[in-house]
């Protein structure tokens, strides 16, 4: 009987987990909140087979509020599915930049690679041409300094010596190869995403990196191909022009002995003949990418330190943000010194698509008030760092068992219906499971419409009768007591290996 009670309770958790998965997929925020208040461990649930988790589903569908809710519930931000994909990878794959922004602010790992092809979140964003996701992924590597472009292009050794910019770290991230030596630039060029190609080139992507023959990929172009070979195969003239302007060689041959022109001919890309025909002459000068955004690193750092979702009302703000008129000003733009809330400054940096502004270097964004070029943001004197968050636990979903105190009979169990008063304690492992000791008090009057009476101990038979007679749905609410909340979290001490999902 004890084993059956354990197993039955685990099926109940599975049903609740499936409800949370559905809520995350469909964007039902209220349902997700209710389920997580009832059982915070459900955030760690994953479906059978492909190992889908609520975090993966909400990220793939672009439900930013549910992603934030799940992260604040303590779920591992780097959960993987059976392919090794994280929620960040799936958000990048489908271009949900709001979700990518939230995951980056929560410090998601951008270096995780897919088990099947070795691709990272950057590869998936480039594959589908999501330029906003690309710049958010690289926010921690692009310094908020006015001379970034000149340093990257080796125009000024003086600037390079003064700056603490780690160019090697950026190069390692942006030129990281997947299986077969394919880089993010290869993927963007093959699929004809000119904006992504332009941004990657401005951030230092190499035009000379070649694919390799590793025996695991099917490459119809051939090993030893450069991004220009891939662009020629894709047939996008603008991608070819961008690569050539940045120094891509027209004469490089791959392992099949093909030049980019020969690749274009083999794939019947006749429109590229003139572009890929070698001609003498200087390189074409390119304007900076409209997706280059220098202030992003500075505002991301401030948001992580001081928060970015303050709900201060206008009536309580003596100096509200001029953009939203809802939050108090927390940051100022360097140069013009206009003040904004962190939330609006983040939005400006994430959505900016302006290549040139007055009185600003390449990559600066225009101030919405004076159009002055903003290179970085600084905290106001009144902006204080948020208190350190409690350590985020890796909650899992083991089989659960509800039992009474040690030595008590399971047939005499107090169970919740409307307003449970739950206290939990650890028990020694039972076989291969860890059990959970719960004392739950029931007030029958709340369910049956009677007066408030003291909790009554019931046997299983009377318990089933009350379930039938109960006319209201059970309402589970998390205790407002911080002490009880800590005991609730501490009782879940069993951890399973990380799992996740794919779409």
TrEMBL record:
Q: Zinc as a keyword?
A: yes
Q: Which SUPFAM superfamilies match?
A: Ankyrin repeat, RING/U-box
Q: Which reaction does it catalyse?
A: S-ubiquitinyl-[E2 ubiquitin-conjugating enzyme]-L-cysteine + [acceptor protein]-L-lysine = [E2 ubiquitin-conjugating enzyme]-L-cysteine + N(6)-ubiquitinyl-[acceptor protein]-L-lysine
Record keywords:
ANK repeat, Metal-binding, Repeat, Transferase, Ubl conjugation pathway, Zinc, Zinc-finger
Matching InterPro entries: Ankyrin-SOCS_Box (IPR050663), Ankyrin_rpt (IPR002110), Ankyrin_rpt-contain_sf (IPR036770), RING_XB3-like (IPR056760), Znf_RING (IPR001841), Znf_RING_CS (IPR017907)
- Where are the membrane-spanning stretches? none
Instruction: Cite the RING-type domain residue spans from the record.
Output: 321-371
Pathway assignment reads: Protein modification; protein ubiquitination
Q: What class of enzyme is it?
A: transferase
Q: What is this protein called?
A: RING-type E3 ubiquitin transferase
Source organism per UniProt:
Penstemon davidsonii
